Amino acid sequence: MPKIMIIGCGRLGQIIGNFFQINKFSVVGIRRSKVEPSKFPMYAYDIFSNEFDIFFQEQKPDYIIYSATPSSQDPKDYECIYFNGLKKVKHLSSQLPKTKLFFISSTRVFNGYHNDILLDDDTPTNPSDPQGEVLANAERLITDTDDGIVFRLSGIYGLDRQMMIGLAKSPHSWPENRYTNRIFDTDAAHIIYQVIDAVHEGKAIATPRVINVTDSQPIDLYTVLLFIRSKLKLQPIEDLTQDPVQGKRIVSSYLLKQMNYKFQYPDYQSGYLKIISTLVD
Length: 281
Hints:
Layout lengths: L2 E5 L3 H11 L4 E6 L10 E3 L5 H10 L3 E4 L8 H20 L5 E7 L11 E2 L10 H14 L5 E5 L1 E3 L5 H6 L10 E2 L1 E3 H16 L9 E4 L5 E2 H11 L17 E2 L2 H6 L9 H10 L4
Helix pairs in contact: 1-6, 3-4, 7-9
């Protein structure tokens, strides 16, 4: 049975792990904090410790998903977790010749784009801040090697991620309008599972080194918030400014055309209707 290790196994990692577990993979989750109940074995380790090195060598994973995230927005924390941590795990995995490493990154690497072009899987990174620079450098740790894939996630939302619901209810807190991009957490996890499973089965011949994990339906923020308000039966807002919308619009030609992935929630309407249907008055 192939073994997959998920390093940084938080909410998304557990959803990913569940897909693998029910599809005949052995799954091991790693967290740096106290272990929470899970459907597969979960361990608390500092990945920079000698104890983790020993544990890793004992486990001998076939596949590694590096999904660790920093505890703050401080660029030093980003450097420590995203770059140094990934570099450490890459070194450990290099000692197991058949082990493949996958990195969960963020579309923050595109924040330097301000015009109206579509940003696809093969669009060069263009970060606008130190945190984005760290992410771009971490991605190159993967793409500069012979194998491994970067999963570049846009804004994650889901049943346990309801920030936009709260924002929709508080129009006085709305920021300037901009383009937004999103992926439902179960779709993101399923995409990651399907790609890695294809690699395992030897069927991932045309898979790109970087995949934008997004529903490829960018839309401006106010349209989303007004849709949520309408479904919550809140009072309409009549006096919104209509300035030109700025921001990045992200798509994935690979998911839409090559992989032909069938999204459970293909756009913001279907996703937020599902979330709203679960809300308790």
